[in-house]
Write a structure and sequence with these properties.
Length: about 100
């Protein structure tokens, strides 16, 4: 018996470009199996899926090997952060405070 296929999307945005792929996978596929079927790695040299956080429609998936994709899901491959947003805000606030002190 042939397994029914579902359609999902896989998206990744690098610094210089983004790719959105529409992929048919067997119903019951895990997130990781769907990524392998998408061949997204061929579009981005050096993309390490094991090191990248993964999500569905903006919500991070903690165990992509167990998550079963549903028809219409959009799998998102997130880039690692270059800087911690909290640290950037802290530094900006410290710089603004120092600037105010100099003006007084």
């Amino acid at each position: 018996m042939v397994e029914p296929l579902i359609v999902i999307e896989v998206v990744h945005a690098a610094v210089d470009r983004q790719v959105l792929l529409s992929v048919q996978v067997p119903q019951g596929s895990t997130l990781l199996a769907a990524l392998e079927a998408s061949s997204i790695k061929e579009h981005f040299a050096g993309l390490d899926l094991a090191a990248c956080p993964l999500g569905i429609f903006g919500k991070q998936v903690s165990d992509p090997g167990q998550y079963v994709v549903q028809a219409g899901d959009r799998i998102e491959i997130y880039r690692p952060l270059l800087a911690d947003p909290k640290e950037v805000r802290r530094l900006r606030a410290a710089k603004a405070a120092e600037s105010r002190k100099r003006e007084q």
